[in-house]
Amino acid sequence: MKSILNAKIITHEAILEGYVLSFDNKIVSLSKEMPQESEVIDAKGLYLSAGFIDIHIHGSNGFDVMDATEDALEGISKSILQTGTTSFLATTMTMSQEAISKALQNVQNFKPQNGAKVLGVHLEGPFINGAKKGAQNEQYIQKPNMALIEPFMPLIKMITLAPEVEGGREFIEDMKKNYPHVLLSIGHSNATYQESKESFSWGISHATHIFNAMNPLHHREPGIVGAVLESDEVSCDVIADLVHIHPSFFNLLYQLKKEQLLLITDAMRAGCLACGLSEIGGQKVIVKEGEARLEDGTLAGSVLKLNEALKNFYEHTNIGLVELLKMVTKIPAEKLGLKKGVLAQGYEADLVLFDEEFEISSVYLDGDIVFSR
Fold first, then answer.
1. Calpha distance 1→26 (Å, rounded)
2. Which amino acids are annotated catalytic?
3. Is residue 137 domain-shared with residue 184, that is, in the same domain?
4. Which residues constitute the domain of residue 359?
5. What is the count of structural domains for the chain?
6. Which residues of the chain have pLDDT under 50?
């Protein structure tokens, strides 16, 4: 057993000092007493939290989920440890049916080696609206199609789709009835306010990268954003890279959504790399000054790291660290129906030590150290 002391421990309720977190592969105790016969780890005043969870990430370190290789998933999972991410949803793109199937099969067969855990798949497209395709490849957009994904349903944890497209309602209602474990998210959509509200009653319960790849909030047509912000039941996530939305919206989002707000990266293969040329979904991407764009200027995901998202959100809001950290730990775990993301007895010992600048010092997976700066 190991025990961490001299840490500022961020639980889902408070920041604790003078406490000891003891763990093996799971958390054993959180108390003021040091257990006997325990390996002592001195945190030297660093913050300690549950490991970060990213429900929307396409790639990192030159690799992409759509590469559909073991090396790609291994490269992503190992590189994002330096960002504090201990679990993630491998996120696909709107590409050919064959390419998507290969990517899903690859995730299904993948067994990580000391890298962040793959919790399953986030299917972003191909069931989207071409009018709000963003960096998704329009030629591969198709109507909702259960046949494409049915063999992989135990693996799929989240689907981003446009509910207003032909067949959208039937697909959503079928998913809600037969696969209630899947988080259905409105995104890459041009749904009206009324269409959005109706889709919530069908089974949509989340919104992908709020404000982005959807119609804008307008005083005469509130659209998707208006419908999401007024709903107590629908959660949303945000790319807090200071590029995708203006940071002045961070406080507003938190005030309206509270425990229904998550932070994501939407990172592509250029994540954790230097600026230059890259690729997403078979399209050329130019990465410059922290922005990833297609040749026509369209934003193409991000190169954001999850610890940077935390820092950006913290610096542009009046939110405290307890509530902030829940956006990448407890809340995403709850949305996926997982017993993760909390520092409490019996939970997985996926842990992150970081400093006041959100720089990651150490990462533990199932109690074993897998990254140390």
1. 10
2. 266
3. yes
4. 2-48+345-372
5. 2
6. none
